[in-house]
Every structure is written in C-alpha cells, then in structure tokens.
From TrEMBL, chain A:
Cellular location(s): Membrane
Name used for this protein in its record: Succinate dehydrogenase, cytochrome b556 subunit
GO cellular component: membrane
Ranges that cross the membrane: 79-97, 118-140
Pfam family, one: Sdh_cyt
PANTHER family: SUCCINATE DEHYDROGENASE 2 MEMBRANE SUBUNIT SDHC, SUCCINATE DEHYDROGENASE HYDROPHOBIC MEMBRANE ANCHOR SUBUNIT
UniProtKB/TrEMBL annotation, chain B:
InterPro entries: 2Fe-2S_ferredoxin-like_sf (IPR036010), 4Fe4S_Fe-S-bd (IPR017896), Beta-grasp_dom_sf (IPR012675), Helical_ferredxn (IPR009051), SDH/FRD_Iron-Sulfur (IPR050573), Succ_DH/fum_Rdtase_Fe-S (IPR004489), Succ_DH/fum_Rdtase_N (IPR025192)
UniProt GO MF annotations: 2 iron, 2 sulfur cluster binding; 4 iron, 4 sulfur cluster binding; electron transfer activity; metal ion binding; oxidoreductase activity
Cofactors, names only: [2Fe-2S] cluster; [3Fe-4S] cluster; [4Fe-4S] cluster
UniProt-recorded name of the protein: Succinate dehydrogenase
Start and end residues of each 4Fe-4S ferredoxin-type domain: 193-223
Keyword tags: 2Fe-2S, 4Fe-4S, Iron, Iron-sulfur, Metal-binding, Oxidoreductase
Organism from which the protein derives: Halorubrum ezzemoulense DSM 17463
C-alpha cells in the first residue's frame, strides 16, 4: 500500500444519527456508569465532612445541631440538589435495567429482542422517574 | 421476397463504388472514428445534463479520492444522476455512473449477487452490500462512501489487509486429529451439529461487521466479529474433536479475543448474510468460561 486516506475517528460519533438501538444502549450504559462513579466519590467526600458528628453530644444530635444533620438539611434545602436527585435516580434506574438486559445477553437469552428490551428499559426508566418526582421535589418550593 | 433482390444488388454496387478509391475510404473511416471519439467525449456531459433534468433518476453522492492524481488528493463528493430502473441496486447505479459518466470511478465488485463479498460499502450511513441493496429502499440522495474504520486506497476501495489478517489469525479452516477408522470411511457430521453451525458458515468475508464495530476500530488487535464467527464455525464443528476444540478456545479466549465484545449489536445489524454474530460471540464467551471454571 503506497498511499491511503485515513479518515480518523470522526466517523465514529459523526454518524450518531444512524446509530441503532444496541449502540445507543451501549453509549447510555457507559454514560450512566461514569455518572454513578462520579456520584459515588462525591457522596463519600460530602458525607465525610459529617464525621465529626460522631463525637457530638447526644443532646446536640437529638436537637439536630450536629454537623451531619446540618450538612444534609442545608443540601436538601437547595432546589438544584433536589432536581439532581431526580436525575440520579433516572441514571441509576436505567443502569440497573440495562444491566439486567446485558446480563441476559451474556446468558444468551433474548438476543433477538435486544432492541425491544432496550426500549423497554428506557420507557420503564421514564415512568419510574416521573413517579418519583413528587417524593423528591416535595417541600422544595 | 423477389422485390427485395434488386434493392440488395443496388446497395452492393453502391458499396463497391464507395470503396473504389482506397484512400478516400480510409479518410472517411478516420473521420468517422474522430467523430465517434468526439461523441464519446461529449456523451458523459450530455447524459449528465439530461439525467439531472430528468425526474426518474436517482441522485448518487459518491466519495472520491485518488492519492495518485494531483487535485484529487483532497476527498470530495461527486454527484451522479442515474436513470432509475425497477430492481436497481446501489451497485447497478454505481456501474452505470462509471460506464456512462466517469470511467475513473473505482469500486470493487465481482459476482454482483451477494456471494463474493467484495462490494461492502457505507451507504446512507450504514454498512451495506451494494449488490443487494435496493435503491428504492433508500432515501435520496444516496450517499455512497467507502467502509469506515479502514484506510481508503482510492474512491470506494479500502485496504482490507488488516481484516484478512484477523480472519487468518483464527485459522479459518477445518483441522482435526480424529480420523475415521477405515481408509475410505467418510467423516460425517450429524444433522444437529450442521444446524448449529449453519448460520456461521454463511460468512462471505465482506468486512461489513468489522467496519461497523466500534471496539474493533479502537483496538486493532481485537479479532473482530467476522473472525470470531469463523472461529465459532470451526470450534463448534463436532468433527474437529476435543483436542482441536481446546486449541481453538485458546485462540478465542485471548485478551483481544471474545472478551473485547461489548454487545453493541452493530455487527449483527449490518451483516448482509444475517449471521447472528453477537449470539455466536456470546456463546463462545460462555464456552470459554465453562472451559476455565473448575470447582474441585
């Protein structure tokens, strides 16, 4: 081969309009996976700031004056946090449902219906997210 | 009948008188040739104009690139208007464009009936076998590009060397240490086993699956769907025997073997022969796990 034209990686995601169900499932699974990992570390970091509460007096804990309770209450008071929590639930639910789909794929079950099971997990995620909104948003406004 | 005879003689005498001066005839022939050449040169342009105005034509946008001609080294898209005929495939349209408008348009094709696997292309954003893709099923303009994730040699021709290397890495041929007893005994495969490997034998080495696979694009060591399917075809063949199957599994379960597959199902979607590639890869994964798990 003397000369050839290398089109690079642009054709990978440059043609996202033509992606099929299985490809979208893969992208969403990767994305939600990274979001969950990111959340996990943030979760640990934020809650670690509440560790001193372990040494607080019982009266302070009962009255809700300790660092831990204060942190949680102030966070939950923010509308942005409430909305992000809905998003977190959506991400986690999709990751679980699609994870189940992938488990079945690994077992060789329902490979012919892989696109339908992806759509099903999307619809279920949507339904569960919508149903959770009242619980998460209650009292935020 | 009889009325036609004098006419014929008349013609023949005319021809004779025409050819009498040899130099004159040659002159005329030369003139004729020159005119034909002119017409041949004009024809593509005229045809193209006519076709562009016509409504029953298909608009093709074809990827063009030629590293050896200055001015064509920068990839571009050429538009061809091809008269539509019922049952026309993408390959038919390309051949019409090449024969009528631009003889430098380059693409691979051979059998034209989805057997040889030389004309896999990227048509309207999907890996398709041009000879079995109906124009009527496609949205216009039809965009024809060379296979993604492969280096373009010229126009629609890509370098398939890497694909063939991966195919050969799995030793895609029947091997066995178990021979039947008698010298003239046949080595038979039972019906169930044949059914099991039936779909995997359909592969025509077109490379569409390899081109559609994102994992194979990022990891050049990954065997790819076609090669793994070939390995499946051999490993699952009951006639090869246990020992050979172990050898096959060793190739399959390498780091860049079946484990790279992330079940995007792209290969299964694009396979022109409808081979359930992902299913075969998944089955080999389970086979590899079973082969290595020991509970004692």
């Amino acid at each position: 081969m003397s000369q050839s034209y290398n089109r690079g990686l642009i054709e990978d995601f440059g043609r996202w309009r033509e992606f099929e169900a299985g490809m979208w499932a893969w992208i969403f699974h990767k994305f939600t996976g990274w979001v969950l990992i990111g959340y996990l570390f943030t979760h640990i970091a934020v809650l670690s700031t509440g560790i001193p509460a372990a040494g607080a007096s019982e009266a302070a804990i009962a009255a809700g004056n300790d660092v831990y309770t204060q942190t949680i209450v102030s966070l939950e008071g923010l509308l942005l946090v409430r909305i992000l929590e809905v998003g977190l639930l959506a991400v986690a639910v999709f990751h679980m449902l699609n994870g189940t789909r992938l488990l079945l794929t690994d077992l060789g079950i329902g490979l012919d219906a892989q696109d339908k099971s992806f759509y099903a997990s999307l619809v279920l995620t949507g339904a569960i997210t919508v149903a959770s909104v009242p619980t998460f948003i209650a009292g935020a406004f | 009948m009889s009325t036609q005879i004098p006419k014929q003689t008349e013609e023949s005498t005319e021809a004779e008188t025409e050819t009498e001066p040899a130099s004159k005839g040659e002159e005329r022939r030369a003139e004729k040739r020159r005119r034909a050449a002119e017409r041949r040169q004009q024809r593509p342009e005229e045809e193209a104009e006519k076709a562009a105005a016509d409504e029953s034509t298909v608009e093709l946008k074809v990827f063009r690139y030629d590293p050896q001609v200055e001015g064509k080294q920068e990839p571009r898209f050429d538009t061809f208007h091809v008269p539509f005929t019922k049952g026309m495939t993408v390959l038919d349209a390309l051949m019409y464009a090449r024969d009528t408008y631009d003889s430098s348009l380059t693409f691979r094709h051979s059998c034209r009936q989805a057997v040889c696997g030389s004309d896999a292309m990227f048509v309207n954003g999907g890996q398709k076998l041009a000879c079995k893709t109906q124009i009527s099923d496609l949205e216009e303009p039809v965009r024809v590009e060379p296979l993604p994730h492969a280096e373009v040699t010229k126009d629609l021709v890509v370098d398939m060397e890497h694909f063939y290397e991966q195919m050969e890495a799995v030793e895609p041929y029947f091997q066995t240490d178990e021979y039947p007893d008698g010298d003239l005994e046949e080595q038979r495969q039972d019906r169930e086993n044949r059914e099991k490997i039936k779909m995997s034998t359909r592969c025509i080495w077109c490379g569409a699956c390899m081109s559609s696979c994102n994992v194979a694009a990022g990891d050049t060591e990954y065997l790819g769907p076609a090669a793994i399917n070939k390995a499946y075809r051999c490993a699952m063949d009951g006639r090869e025997g246990e020992e050979m199957k172990q050898k096959r599994l060793e190739i399959i379960e390498q780091e860049h073997g079946v484990w790279r597959c992330q079940t995007q199902f792209s290969c299964t979607e694009v396979c022109p022969k409808d081979i359930p590639l992902t299913e075969h890869i998944q089955e080999l994964k389970r086979e590899a796990v079973k082969n290595n798990l020991k509970f004692w």
